[in-house]
């Protein structure tokens, strides 16, 4: 339950509720945590890094696990994403052009031609039954290859996570 509440605070405020734990030398673990965050476009503020560095390694690891789960959800890492059009937002066809293409492909396909012609003979075509509608026309790997340039340009954006107050105060404020 506490993880879910802390995750809520992190997602909505970009603040990590003030980490608790025994004092210690958590500097190395805090730097590793910061490096893990940087690999997904996040960074610890200097104040949060200092706070974590003064805690035990176990406390830092606990905070890191909780925070990394929240950040993973924020960046959509828990879901496999695929855009319907491979080079989205470029070259998205006009709606009419898209549907004409779907109908043409269905008429060229031996498996769907009869169904499309039967529907058309009744004066109505259910566009949602066309074989290309709602199906990716490329693999996830093809999308990644096409978007490689976009991914590289996103590397310079960073979201800073700040030190928050204790969890109860953060939740009250939220």
Helix count equals 9
Number of domains: 2
- Radius of gyration computed on alpha carbons: 24 Å
Q: Would you list the SSEs in sequence order as H and E?
A: HEHEHHHHHHEH
Low-confidence stretches: none
Shape: elongated
Summarize, please.
Helix content is 55%, strand content 6%. The protein contains 9 helices and 3 strands. Helix 1 packs across helix 4, helix 2 packs antiparallel against helix 3 (46-53) and helix 5 (95-108) crosses helix 6.
Observed structural traits:
single chain; 174 residues; mainly alpha; 2 domains; three-stranded parallel β-sheet; 3 strands; elongated
Question: What does this protein structure show overall?
Answer:
- The protein has 174 residues and is mainly alpha-helical.
- The protein is elongated.
- The mean pLDDT is 86.
- It has helices spanning 2-13, 27-38, 46-53, 57-74, 95-108, 110-121, 140-146, 148-153, 167-173; strands spanning 15-16, 42-44, 159-163.
- It has nine helices and three strands.
- It folds into two domains: 2-80 and 155-173, no CATH class; 95-137, no CATH class.
- The chain has a three-stranded parallel sheet.
- α1 crosses α4.
């Amino acid at each position: 339950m506490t993880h879910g509440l802390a995750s809520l605070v992190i997602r909505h405020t970009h603040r990590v509720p003030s980490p608790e734990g025994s004092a210690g030398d958590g500097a190395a673990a805090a730097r590793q945590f910061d490096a893990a965050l940087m690999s997904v476009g996040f960074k610890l503020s200097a104040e949060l890094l200092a706070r974590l560095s003064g805690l035990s390694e176990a406390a830092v690891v606990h905070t890191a696990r909780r925070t990394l789960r929240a950040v993973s959800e924020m960046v959509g890492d828990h879901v496999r994403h695929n855009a319907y059009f491979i080079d989205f937002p470029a070259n998205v066809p006009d709606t009419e052009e898209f549907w004409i293409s779907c109908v043409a492909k269905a008429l060229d396909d031996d498996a769907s031609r009869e169904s499309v012609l039967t529907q058309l003979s009744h004066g109505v075509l259910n566009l949602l039954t066309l074989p290309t509608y709602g199906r990716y026309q490329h693999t996830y790997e093809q999308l990644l290859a096409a978007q490689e340039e976009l991914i590289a340009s996103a590397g310079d954006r960073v979201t800073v996570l700040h030190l928050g107050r204790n969890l109860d105060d953060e939740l009250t404020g939220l």
